[in-house]
Specification:
The chain has 121 residues and is mainly alpha-helical. Helices cover 73% and strands 0% of the residues. It has two domains: 43 residues; 76 residues. It has five helices and no strands.
Amino acid sequence: LTGITFLIILAPTSNSQGLQRVASDLLHYLVPSLMFFYWIVFEERELQYSYIWSWIIYPFVFMFWGLYLAIMKEDYLYPFFDINKLGILIVPYLAGMTIAVFLICSFLVFLRKCLSVHRIS
């Protein structure tokens, strides 16, 4: 999710160069990809759908905190929180993206459960 979010929303607005660009690409593309691979292939703990609720807390808190800073202090964590520039319709968009994260997490748990049934010990 980190890599996808960065690719769609942040990368087009990024102007990092040199080593900063290398570090950003490693952080946003390579690390999440390797973690996903590790999780699918090597993780042996059984996942429960109820875990998703604890995973979704951070994106919702982040969204509300970012909107609070944007509205109350005109301080933007990221360009997509700039309500003055993007308009009030950014709020339902961000809520929709957070719900999309929830749905993607649900699908990943489902996928993991399907793969664990066929795992060779």
